[in-house]
Amino acid sequence: MAETPAAGAAATDPEPLARELYREIDRADWARSARGMANPLTETEVVQLRGIGDRLDLDEVREVYLPLSRLLSLYAENTKRLGAEESAFLGDSDTTTPFVVGVAGSVAVGKSTIARLLRELMARWPGTPRVELVTTDGFLYPNAELERRGIMHRKGFPESYDRRALVSFLTEVKSGAAEVRAPFYSHMRYDIIPDAHVTVRRPDVVIVEGLNVLQPPPSPHDVAVSDLFDFSIYIDADAEHITQWFIDRFLALRRAAFSNPNSFFNRFAQVDDDEAVELALGFWNDINLPNLRENVEPTRHRATLVLQKGADHAVERVLLRKL
């Protein structure tokens, strides 16, 4: 988390106060909560779920994400039970809707891998067999619209997303709609694919992964995306570590582009390694680091749970909001 403020720092700094809201659990203590739980995933499945640059292995799954998936499943089961009891109290039929989990954090911090992993693990628990994953990339404006607005260089910043469409999508999910569709984003093309959709059909759990999902609403009268979450997770790491992960991922995507002429990263395939590193640093320093500092990191204290990663991508500490 953030460093302790120096002497003379503003007394209104919210970080020390926000930390009082959480239980701080080190890796060893958190891992002990998984005693007696069998890891349902094979090494092959873990490799298939792992994103470019992530160092996810069976130990990390067993010690960190298996207990997290069980905690989430317990939250979902008990929320459903409370919904049924509320309906009985009111004399209505049970109208319990999907349990929605938000996953936030910087570019290259491992959000997508964690979201995919939690989808697989939660689906193995008997109380949450149907789990869907939606990424907020699908709610980015198409590149042509970003160009028209003159904000292509701000892609990933809050203003590059159709926030109203995302809120509308989640409102339908939480209202219990039988079927809700979200736009589809192609990382290969680096753009929205027209007429392609992700369809959600009232599962037990919906995981929503994205950079800015914990942001407060733009005005007091608006609904925040996070208002529609039942549980939220923030993936935290030092910026210097994320910088290196971003460069490593950029180089890996560039190498992969050699075999895929349709990849957005194919345009960087012919530059040498030193130039590629300079390009990656430029993208990081001009776009992703400012977005992290201005928009993503300040939302960390809004999460129900924070996973703090070390330099090797391994989770070192868990912060869980007190009930």
Structure commentary:
The chain has 323 residues and is an alpha/beta fold. Helices cover 39% and strands 18% of the residues. It contains nine helices and nine strands. It has helices at residues 14-19, 27-32, 43-49, 58-90, 111-122, 143-149, 163-175, 239-257, 273-296; strands at 22-26, 99-105, 131-135, 180-186, 191-200, 205-209, 231-236, 305-309, 315-321. Strands 1-9-8-7-2-6-3 form a seven-stranded mixed β-sheet. A two-stranded antiparallel ribbon has the order 4-5. Helix 8 crosses helix 9 (273-296). The model is unreliable at 1-14 (pLDDT under 50).
Give a brief outline of the structure.
The chain has helices spanning 14-19, 27-32, 43-49, 58-90, 111-122, 143-149, 163-175, 239-257, 273-296, and strands at residues 22-26, 99-105, 131-135, 180-186, 191-200, 205-209, 231-236, 305-309, 315-321.
Biggest pleated sheet: 7 strands, mixed
Cα-to-Cα separation, first versus last residue: 21 Å
Poorly predicted runs of 5 or more residues: 1-14
H/E series, N to C?
A: HEHHHEHEHHEEEEHHEE
For the secondary structure, the number of strands is 9
Strand residues, percent: 15-25%
Mean pLDDT across residues: 90
Main sheet strand line-up: 1-9-8-7-2-6-3
Number of helices: 9
Rg from Cα:
20 Å
Helix- and strand-based class? Answer: alpha/beta
Shape: globular
Specify the helix fraction band: 25-40%
Assembly state here? single chain
Quick tags:
323 residues; alpha/beta; seven-stranded mixed sheet; two-stranded antiparallel sheet; 9 helices; 18% strand; disordered N terminus
How is the secondary structure organized here?
Layout: H1 14-19, E1 22-26, H2 27-32, H3 43-49, H4 58-90, E2 99-105, H5 111-122, E3 131-135, H6 143-149, H7 163-175, E4 180-186, E5 191-200, E6 205-209, E7 231-236, H8 239-257, H9 273-296, E8 305-309, E9 315-321
Parallel strand pairs: 2-6, 2-7, 3-6, 7-8
Antiparallel strand pairs: 1-9, 4-5, 8-9
Helix pairs in contact: 4-5, 8-9
